[in-house]
Specification:
Helices cover 4% and strands 33% of the residues. The chain contains 1 helix and 10 strands. The longest helix is centred in the middle third of the chain and has 6 residues. It has 163 residues and is mainly beta. The strands form 2 sheets. Strands 4-1-9-6-7 form a 5-stranded antiparallel β-sheet. It has a 5-stranded antiparallel β-sheet with strand order 2-3-10-5-8, with no helix packed on it.
Length: 163
């Protein structure tokens, strides 16, 4: 089965803060506190593990996820600011903002960087899990967290010209 996530899987977890990438203003932090519960959807979700979170406007820097090495996602297509939830056919055929090819070693909660410049002004994010590590029908994600900065933390007056 393929899974389409229209936002961010977030279990109750301690707030995490990451170091600021060089040249990027504002602290990179967990975006869990910027969730809006009124606009989420997950196609093909398990009834035993429902999904229910949505982001406010943020800049997304990276993701962390935990999943079993055999059932965890392998190919993840990332879309942003789509006007409506993509169906499986659209997620397969449309151009994504970034495609991630994950190895089993990346499924243990380590940071997976995204192309930060492509994830500015993110109002919604959709993750399409194309397949998993072993090609099984069911893909399992135990925990998924997005990291970045809220849009309002970047003060353009404080930016200095590089070089």
């Amino acid at each position: 089965k393929l899974i389409l996530l229209d936002s961010l899987l977030q279990e109750k977890a301690p707030q995490s803060v990451m170091s600021t990438p060089e040249g990027k203003p504002g602290a990179i932090e967990s975006l869990a506190s910027f969730l809006d519960m009124n606009g989420s959807e997950c196609l093909n979700e398990s009834d035993d593990h429902p999904f229910g979170n949505c982001l406010k406007v943020v800049k997304v820097h990276s993701i962390k996820l935990n999943a079993p090495s055999a059932k965890g996602p392998k190919t993840v297509r990332v879309f942003k600011n789509q006007p409506r939830t993509l169906d499986f056919s659209q997620a397969e055929s449309m151009t994504s903002i970034q495609d991630l090819e994950l190895s089993g070693g990346q499924l243990d909660g380590k940071e997976i960087p995204l192309k930060f410049v492509k994830f500015q002004d993110v109002q919604n994010i959709q993750l399409f899990v194309r397949d998993n590590q072993t090609g099984d029908e069911v893909t399992q994600i135990d925990f998924l967290e997005l990291f970045g900065t809220p849009k309002q933390t970047t003060n353009m007056k404080e930016l200095k010209k590089a070089g």
